[in-house]
Amino acid sequence: MQERRVQTDAEINSDLLNNVLKARRWYWPAVGISATVMFAAIVAWACVIVMGLGLTGLNRPIMWGFFVTNFVFWIGISHAGVMLSAILRLSKAEWRRPATRAAEVLTVFSLMVAATNIFMHVGRVWRLLTWPLPYDFARGIFPNVRSALIWDPSAITTYLTGSILFVVVALIPDLAVIRDRTTGVRHQIYSLLSLGWRGTPRQWKLQIVAGFLLSALLLPVFVSVHSIVSWDFAAAIAVESWHSTIFAPYFVIGAVHSGVSGVVTVMIILRYAYNWEAYIRKEHLDALGKLLIAIATAWFYFFIMEILASLYNLEGQEIALRELQVLTWPFAPMFIVFIVTGYFLPVPLWLFKSVRRSPMWMLVTTISVNIGMWIERFLIVVPGLARKQPLTFDWSSYSPSIFEIIMVTGTFAFVTLMMLLFSKVFPLIPIFDIKEGQILSDEIQIGRRKVPALKVEE
Amino acid sequence: MGHNIHVPKLPNADDFSRDLLASHASKGKLYRNALLITGGIFSLGILAFLVRFFTEEFNSDNREPWAYYAAMVAFLLTTAGAAPIVAVALRLVKAHWRRPMTRVAEIYGSVGLLTLLLFIPLLFLIPSASGRRTIWFQDHDGPFGIGTYGKIPGAPHAYDLLALLFLVICGLALLYLSALPDIAKLRDQKSESRVNYNRLSLGWYGTWKQWKIVNLGVTLLGVFYLMLFIYTMSIFSIDLSLSLVPGWRDAIYPTFQTLTALQAGLAATIVGLYLIRRFARLEQYIGVEQFWGASKILLALSLLWFYFWWSGFIVYWYGRIPAEKDILELFMFGPYMALFIAAFLLCFVCPFLILLWNSVRKTVWGPTLAGVSVLLGTLVDKIRLYVPSWSITDSLDKHALSSMPGTNYPDIGDLLMVFGGIAGAIFIYLLVSKIVPIVSFWEMKEGMMLRTVRRYLRREIIVHGKPD
Amino acid sequence: MAKKGYKWQMAVDTDRCTGCQACVVACQVENNVPLNSEGIFNQKRAIQWIRIERYWDGIEESKQTGDVTKVKARFIPVLCQHCDNAPCEPVCPVFATYHNNEGMNVQVYNRCIGTRYCANNCPYSVRSFNFWEPVWPESLRNQLNPDVTVRSRGIMEKCSFCVQRIRRVERNADKTEREVVDGEVQPACSQACPTGAIVFGNGNDPNSHVSKMRDDKRHYRLLEGLGTDPNVTYLKRVDKTATVVGGGHGS
Predict the structure, then answer these.
(1) FRET partner for C5 with CA separation of 20 to 30 A, picked from A142, A289, B226, B392?
(2) Of C44, C46, C93, the CB nearest to A150
(3) What's the gap between Cα A164 and its chain centre?
(4) How does pLDDT run across B19-49, given as a tens digit for each residue?
């Protein structure tokens, strides 16, 4: 809080809109690169659809591999939005202000790409488009609600709808600001989008109440989405290491860990790309770093509990599975990389204030967290399937094919591309939120010291 | 905006000092009666324990008579052991409304002494780890060869005892350090208390360095306490219930128990805060703000109670594996179904329905009622989990229950031990609350300094200083 | 077709099984199972509705003593167990697999979208996925069984207890309004087995061969502790000289 600078409204507007009104130099090349990678992924996907999933590295019994891992990973990243936006909004933390929109938008695009991964991994995509929907499209049969794969789309579409609403509601005042600064066609488009916002007290009240309500309603959704995704695995009895009661909270806390780190990465990139040093300040990174320590340690606790409980019975194939996962090539180096990048590198670094306040170190540690968490999802899915049951004749191994690697990389390119396109059209830091923060900030004199303070609404 | 709060006149430090000291010094009839009643019930509990000790076999093969006793010790650890975490967590997130609540929560740490004492008989009743499934991997010559690396000596008894011992020491240290400035204040008041505040205050004079030590120490001890508690609660619940039931392999159980402990600790703090507000006549200083803040967290924890319970249930129920279906039958739908329904209602449904409404959250009685419900529900839940675990007579090296045991109903001895333990905890709390002030004076004073009223546009608004 | 209360079950006597793989070949021919090349086997994508699992006994000891005469190979033909409590059924999002009223787990090819959750949730890993579009050389196309669908890529398939043969026999029996006689319906594997190790029949009939084998004192079921309640029973005399002792799920 010590680093607040008092800025005029005009300064805030021009700073935060600097990409929307006029594109920066690096912008179009960045869009071009992401679009190219995404195009390569689409071509790869078309090959897989036409020729079959034999182009992947999957086999019997390892029927799920890179695509399902990627699906769980992106669902994980999507938890950033609700964690930062909803929870911090409800607890009225001041340091959320620059992060909320980037987090919410990351959520929306992550959910879209997660759903795309489902389309990629299925054997007959052209049938998938209608049959899981709640209608008897073919042969008068409704989808099987006993299946966790039907709970998935319900949860994901609810979360996606809620997140889109969240983004839209929070965007309206900012769209009005842009409307008032553009002319011609853009003015008309933004007038339409800003729904006639005039900034009257009643409109502000409605906007804030809507934000609170959506935050409160989205919280149970966010917990349930990743729990339902985890039950895709935990409800299966045939894969010994998956049938664990702890999967739901373990996945959720892992998602929060992965998601918040993802948002911090995005924010640091934005800070550098758009010259937003005055808005994404070191104190924000400091607070986020402390939050990350708590989340990462909670995640580590659940991770230890999961391994402890799985070894508890000391059954043959469970031990073989852990030996595979931890001690055998190629999973052994992956395990070490995962546990170091996911926890033992970032968390001890985050204990130091100088690390938390350094954008470069926060970028390095949060990217490392996400590398670790991607590998973690992979280590849950594939070794589990490689050692399903004590019937050793059916044990197998897996290595991804080039098609899977291209398609997974394409999903990262898709999210990057969408974030870039979004930032051209809408400001990625909520203007009204920053202005509200300015209004609420204050100072108290205690003795000889001036202490920064906050006006509290209650 | 839009909450229509009328801004109260802020209390000032001198008034607070006078009121707090007055309530601290008074030892009215109500206090003496409370001591007598709780002391009496505690003595009856000890008597029941001794009777049972001399009439029943006291070894690890005969666990069934001690089932309710184990449940009671678990309950004490869950509620009183977790309560200091409320103070720790609120300090870590720097919630401005935490100040009246921290001491109420920390005094529960002293009850840990009783928990430790009552835990010692249980050590003789837990079977050794060899030949059965535990997290301590004793005696297994299985493929992983853990047994060949040597046994983990003394497991599980030594490690449970050490964990609880360190927890209690940390809790007492936390209480002592955070109360040190107030003990010094009581020394300066020169009251006629029997407590030797001179020795206790360790030469505190409030220098800059001493304050830094207190602040840093309280934060560090708080974090250690949190981590120790999570560790202790996890292995306590595994060693004293999970590993005593053949075929019960549940990854979420220790974390579920830790979470219910956080919920119960918060409930205990809220109920304690209500009683202190009422009987120490501190209504001016403990206001709706405290209950409102705590109620939101209690609502979230109650929802999480349901979430953790459901996560365990759905995996077992969906998988239909026979050994796991037996576990569901034992703990939820069979001989202990009434207890399960009661615990579910009291720990989740009632607090949820009460705390759902913002107008109820913003009262003093609303969160307290929810807190009482949670405390009762936690007691019922511990009985539901520990009594069946201790009543299993199957050999522990089996892979599944051989048959469903019947319900173990409590007899008069069981009831006396349970209520005696709870009364003992309250007894100790009451004693300690006359040694240290029940509201943290130095934190309240700090809060009063950081708070002021300003005019903004046409309204009066409270402004909180945030020095960090 | 009238429902006469059949419960189709199978018993496999592994003491008689010689591992000759005649059942595998017969099944492949009868059910239009795609051709598996050596490359496909190496990728572990071979589609086999029944497979002979071979377990070695005494390998570790022979490595230490150098004496290979004590090494034994044990064969288990593993096929879809048609579990009454099948874990593959509740997890299919589109009802492509379900339990019919004759105790069999059936796969509906044209309903399958290929999520492969059923394959993951089968503890016996008996379900195969068509990773590629199956291709038969021109000369083999006349050999395809017209009673059985030819599957495309992206679809799960597994042993169906030769349901086309069951239906044919039931239809014939219906014409004269009689019950199916024990031994009248033979899936391809049991028909081809030279030692008679695979026996198939109506489990509801206490006099059928399969019911008698099911009650034999050598009987056991695979992965019994999981509670899948399979309709395939295995028979094996316990070998007291075996060096490898079973672990895993107790029951």
Answers:
(1) A142
(2) C93
(3) 14
(4) 888 878 777 888 899 999 999 999 999 999 9
DSSP-assigned beta bridge partners for residue C106: C98
Find residue B460's DSSP bridge partners. Answer: B455
Sorted by where each begins, the domain ranges of chain B are: 63-464
Give pLDDT, residue B203: 80
All domains of chain A in start order, with CATH: 4-454 (1.20.1630.10)
Q: Which residues of B touch C250 (CB under 8 A)?
A: 398-400
Confidence of residue A389 (pLDDT cuts 50, 70, 90): confident
Torsion of CA A175, A176, A181, A185, to 10 degrees: 70
Token pair of A8, please? 């005029």
Q: Cβ separation of B464 and A301 shorter than 8 Å?
A: no
Task: Give me the phi and psi of B358, to 5 degrees please.
Answer: -60, -35
Which residues are C11's β-sheet partners? C199, C233
ipTM of this model?
0.92
Coil/strand/helix, residue B349: helix
Q: Looking at CA atoms only, how far is residue B233 from chain A in angstroms?
A: 13
Q: Do C251 and B399 touch (CB under 8 A)?
A: yes
Chain B environment of C225 (Cβ under 8 Å): 321-323, 399-400
CB within 8 Å of chain C, chain B residues 119-148: 142
Closest CA of chain C from B316, distance in Å = 12
- Those residues of chain C that have pLDDT short of 70 are 1-4, 243-251
**Cα–Cα distance measured from residue C117 to residue A233, given in angstroms and rounded to the nearest whole number:** 9
Q: How many helices (H) and strands (E) does chain C have?
A: 7, 10
- Measured CA to CA, the distance from residue A290 to residue A370 in angstroms comes to 17
Which residues in C lie closer than 8 A to residue A59 (C-beta atoms)? 43-45, 131
Judge whether B465 is closer than 8 Å to chain A, CB to CB.
Answer: yes
Is B141:B147 a contact under the CB 8 Å cutoff?
yes
Chain C partners of B133 at a C-beta cutoff of 8 Å?
Answer: none
Report DSSP state, residue C250.
Answer: -
Cα radius of gyration rounded to whole Å, chain A: 23
Rounded Cα gap, residues A104 and B365, in angstroms: 37
- CA A46-A52-A54 angle, 5° bins: 120
A259: which residues sit within 8 A by CB, 6+ positions away?
A76, A77, A78, A79, A80, A81, A83, A103, A106, A107
- Mapped onto helix, strand or coil, the DSSP state of residue B180 is helix
The pLDDT of residue A278 is 82
C155 close contact with A: CB closer than 8 A: yes
Return the axis-axis angle of helices B157-189 and B112-123, rounded to nearest 10°.
160
Query: What is the pLDDT at residue A136?
Result: 76
State the DSSP H helix or E strand holding residue B359, giving kind and residue range, or none if neither.
helix B358-361
CA dihedral of A218, A223, A226, A229, whole degrees rounded to 10: -100
Instruction: Find the Cα–Cα–Cα–Cα dihedral B317, B321, B324, B325, rounded to 10°.
Output: 60
Q: Does B6 touch chain A (CB under 8 A)?
A: no
Tell me the per-residue pLDDT of C93-132, one tens digit each, with 9 for 90 and over: 999 999 999 999 999 998 899 999 999 999 999 999 999 9
Tell how far CA B91 is from the center of its chain.
17
Instruction: Give pTM, 2 decimals.
Output: 0.93
* CB-CB neighbors (< 8 A) of B250 in chain A: 245, 309
Q: Does the distance separating the beta carbons of B461 and A237 come in below 8 Å?
A: no
